[in-house]
Amino acid sequence: HRDLLAIAQLERHEILYLLEEAEQWVELNRQSAKRSDALAGLTIINAFFENSTRTLLSFEIAGKRLGADVVNMHAAQSSVKKGETLIDTAITLNAMRADAIVIRHGSSGAVELIASKVDCPVLNAGDGSHEHPTQALLDALALRHALDSRGEGSEDFSGLTVTICGDIMHSRVARSNLLCLQAMGATVRLCAPPALMPAGIEAMGAEVFHDFEAALNGSDVVMMLRLQNERMSGQFVPSAAEYHYLYGLTKDRLERAAPGALVMHPGPMNRGVEIDSDVADLLDRSIITRQVEMGVAIRMACLDVLTRRRRGVEGWQDEPRG
Ligand code: CP
């Protein structure tokens, strides 16, 4: 079987394939019935060792709309609290013969470790500050739809400049998006205070900025990220007011970006810190709710594609190379 652990493990044609597969589910989700039986009889476990609203709910909805039986394990209410190790938890989940396991964990690499211990496809729903692959895929789908609706759509993002601003150091969303957007041809700028920018990230092809206004200059898309206070230890942590003064996306600052620049945020947002409400809610410019909508379709596509082999349908690796 094949897992979905990281954008770094996907080739460009595989990213494009997953985006294409999601289109049928975007359509289905806009109908009143919203049901398919593609995954009927399959069991999906969502094992979340970290809090989530969007990712957990959209994976649950995705599995149910595809007809699967979906069960959620919240670590806070599980035997993890009684000292069970990650590997023993993985062996326990495996013994229940799930057909796919979706995992969020606070430690980078934990999802890959679990994947090595189970017999079914594993989907990474975010591991520490490493990767959040389905977030990057849904962001790409939302961006593509937004550009399409303006008549500016194309298969990839060649010629587009995307600025990602926030706590890049701790952000799995930034890492997955950097890789995904670059694979799709975009130029990616990363902007953060020096203490929240990983050393050497230029080697991944990013343009690095510490001055937000310079980064915004001419950007077609601005993706804002929150400060991940829960992952900070030892760094200089700016106050919310200081951070907003230097790095908050205000309406005035947005003027520095390209005309009509789109605004994105993976959520959860801290309004008034990294983004002002009048920007987050800006009609025709903010695609934050479209990102959430696309999250369900992308997760349906990922669950469908990754479980095909188990269902006797041609597997992912068998798809023609683009
Ligand atoms: N974007 C995202 O991963 O949100 P949640 O933490 O609410 O799942």
Would you kindly provide a written description of the structure presented here, covering whatever features stand out?
- The chain has eleven helices and nine strands.
- By secondary structure, the protein is α/β, with parallel strands linked by helices.
- The chain is 36% helix and 14% strand.
- The chain has a five-stranded parallel β-sheet.
- The protein has helices at 12-29, 54-65, 86-95, 110-115, 133-149, 172-183, 212-216, 240-247, 251-254, 277-280, 288-306; strands at residues 43-48, 69-74, 100-105, 122-127, 161-165, 187-191, 207-209, 221-224, 262-264.
- Bound molecules: phosphoric acid mono(formamide)ester.
- Catalyzes the condensation of carbamoyl phosphate and aspartate to form carbamoyl aspartate and inorganic phosphate, the committed step in the de novo pyrimidine nucleotide biosynthesis pathway.
- It is an enzyme of class 2 (transferase).
- It catalyses: carbamoyl phosphate + L-aspartate = N-carbamoyl-L-aspartate + phosphate + H(+).
